Amino acid sequence: MQKKDRERYLRLSDKFEAYSIERLEEIAIRANEKGDKVKVETALREREYKLNQSFEWTPQSKERFFCLNRKLIDCFEKLKTEAAETLALLQQRIDKEDDFLRDLETEIKVTPYFYEACEDGGFYNS
User: What is this structure's pTM?
Assistant: First the structure.
């Protein structure tokens, strides 16, 4: 980290000490959208510190970790299957010298969202 970035990091760190975990998340998200790497790193490090300080290892937190792990594994298995199918389809089109693919560059971004059931049967972001 360059000197001016380090100085900014320290100033932001002092400021962010008073912020809640939720506020730090919001700051990191907005800073990331703007490409402000120093602010993102500072907010996430302060958030990490606060989460670690308040963490208690209980049967409930252990179960939440297991549940999150299952959801992540399921998500990546689905992603792997979908990617393999898409790759096979694209390879077929490449092999057939599809004109559409000749000058095309594709970038894919996958963002998983996890939902929990509400009491009314609907879903909400968790």
Answer: 0.53
